[in-house]
Amino acid sequence: MVHRDRLHPTDGALGDNVATEPLNDFSRLCVHTITTKPWSIEEAARAYSAAGVAGITVWRQWLADRDVGVVGRMLRDHGLKVVSLCRGGFFPAIDAAGRQSAIDDNRRAIDEAAQLGAPLIVLVCGAVPGMPLDEARRQIADGIAAVSEQAAAAGVRLGIEPLHPMYADNRSAVNTIEQANDMCDQLDCPHVGVVVDVYHLWWDPRLRDEIGRAGRANRLFAHHVCDWRTPTEDLLNDRGLMGEGCIPLRAIRGWVEDAGFRGFIEVEIFSNRYWAADQREFLEKIKSAYLAHV
Amino acid sequence: MVHRDRLHPTDGALGDNVATEPLNDFSRLCVHTITTKPWSIEEAARAYSAAGVAGITVWRQWLADRDVGVVGRMLRDHGLKVVSLCRGGFFPAIDAAGRQSAIDDNRRAIDEAAQLGAPLIVLVCGAVPGMPLDEARRQIADGIAAVSEQAAAAGVRLGIEPLHPMYADNRSAVNTIEQANDMCDQLDCPHVGVVVDVYHLWWDPRLRDEIGRAGRANRLFAHHVCDWRTPTEDLLNDRGLMGEGCIPLRAIRGWVEDAGFRGFIEVEIFSNRYWAADQREFLEKIKSAYLAHV
Lengths: 294, 294
Hints:
The structure is a homodimer of 294-residue chains.
Chain A: H1 4-7, E1 29-32, H2 41-51, E2 55-59, H3 68-77, E3 81-89, H4 96-116, E4 120-124, H5 133-154, E5 157-160, H6 177-187, E6 192-197, H7 198-201, H8 207-216, E7 220-225, H9 249-258, E8 265-267, H10 272-275, H11 279-293
Parallel strand pairs in A: 1-2, 1-8, 2-3, 3-4, 4-5, 5-6, 6-7, 7-8
Helix pairs in contact in A: 4-5, 8-9
């Protein structure tokens, strides 16, 4: 890792020389429950609230065996804004029964989001190893179309999260923000939009243009941050804390804000290293890294 | 892994319903020395020749401390066609001295290719963690431009190999075939073209169109095959044997051949598993997989 000051002398100014200002408080900071995986939803709520974190994105595993409406009130009682529910999607399947099962599960997710008070569900769209990607994309579009009316009626938005191409085998056949934008155009539903996660998209030469396109279409629904470590030792669970890697975080935030986004900045870090560490210390590191690097 | 017959019922017919015929001999089969990493160049030559493999791509490590011209004659004496030399590139660096050092190394690679009798050098273009990717791409184009005249004079072609986006941090800032085609347009040198490696490119929705574009420009210089395993356990050294994964190999070969390519099909597999196995048995598996899946 080359020292960042040397290679990002104008962080946030890539391409247009207008520097994006650092963030100076935590009013837009949201943390995903999976980022602090060892904590229960109650532990996370207490700790985030005590640390001054403003928002929480809840992964569905944290709602298992709980009254979802009660959890939503508990989070609000801690002063936390529920930003989104992770995750819906996984629409493609090898037969009609599998596709129907996925649609049913997404309908349950919409109900959960409504009960929780989450305005957005993040969609990891799905893929089946060996299924042609264009077929998977058709099934994804069909699946979203099948549930979009229910989502709209519930006041819940659906955010297509394009996933890094290294997950095209079994997690998502939507691997660029351009594909997500194209799919939104095709679906033409104001409740269906795009999630910009830097981990998945930072390498894409079209990223800036497609963020602008999403903004113009009023479909830029969420912004997730972490970092890309060198070397990355695990395809899934070796994400870096912001500043530990090579992603031009401030530049991308600048593009997202130029596109009109003023919502939460969500810290989503899957990391065996950090999950094994003291979670309170990790949360403090997240806050420092958020101010220094995002 | 879903059974392939179910999801690729018309392998090679994606999109146009014209089936690509299976390969029925080994006259276009080339193996990379790194695929059988435990073997020296002499062992590889004997084994490939005995197995009826027609071509060999030599990685530069196999030439260390050897007379390159002698190695080239030895390979030809075994009836092997030298397909390419791997690898040049790695042009970006944080200072001018580093960039000059990269250029010098690529000049040595051109000399080696000429001595070896390799008509092509595969370029892994390079990236520096933290350097903005657009800056890295400028340095790559400058580096190729600096050596292209020497390559042309030596009768050695340079093939830009776009690398999977998961290598954008430290191996290559050229991550799609569209970017490679754009760079070739910019350089406008008939000795500079594109290498299509399925492992890096299979997920790209623009792949077919950009393969066609490369063919029309007479710059489709090489075709590498392997497979993408689910799960992939290592970012570098867990490539699959053809048929073990989800890449639509026959469809992509069809696109490459539709674009006019009739050269060698090169098996390039980095695999800790296979490197630990008996290499003669592995070579037989490669031959079977080549006929069955490519």
